Amino acid sequence: MLLPLITNTHLKMTTPEHIGKCFARLCDTEMGARLELGRNVGISGTIICAAKSIVIGEGTIIGSGAMILDNDFHSPEGEWGWKTDYVTGARAIQIGRGVFIGSRAIVLKGVTIGDRAVIGAGAVVVKDVPPGAVAAGNPAKIIRQKELIS
Ligand SMILES: CC(C)(COP(=O)(O)OP(=O)(O)OC[C@H]1O[C@@H](n2cnc3c(N)ncnc32)[C@H](O)[C@@H]1OP(=O)(O)O)[C@@H](O)C(=O)NCCC(=O)NCCS
What average pLDDT does this structure show over 140-148? Predict the structure, then answer.
């Protein structure tokens, strides 16, 4: 298991042993960012960067090469420049319980993914995904809706 971690983030892990059947790279980008992983979250080969807040619910599994980024890292400066600016525009990401995120999916700032949703491989998720929905593509669209058993 490889778990590089910068300690500025308020990291809360219920069961840290479930991080990384392969590896997870967790990077905070701003002092005081919140990164919360519920019980039995499974992460392999995933990059998670929190400048504001990323919360992942119990039993969610995340495929290899996925990225979860709650900020854009850079914003334009002057005519040609880019400044490193994690905070401006950072928006919290909330991922529900029992979600499946496919390989190489990217979840971008401000997204909420509901319980038991499925995110297809390679999806770029820029809008909320309701509970039980299957979303795929770039930008991710709902391709199916499951009935949820409560
Ligand atoms: C999203 C997923 C679960 C859907 O599987 P499914 O329910 O069997 O769906 P189907 O294969 O019947 O495809 C349904 C439609 O969605 C499209 N689709 C399926 N997965 C897609 C994806 N990842 N990206 C874009 N479109 C996708 C199909 O082309 C099909 O479109 P059509 O109706 O126009 O022909 C699956 O395709 C997927 O992406 N699995 C993730 C695999 C993975 O990453 N595992 C993790 C390993 S660590």
Answer: 91
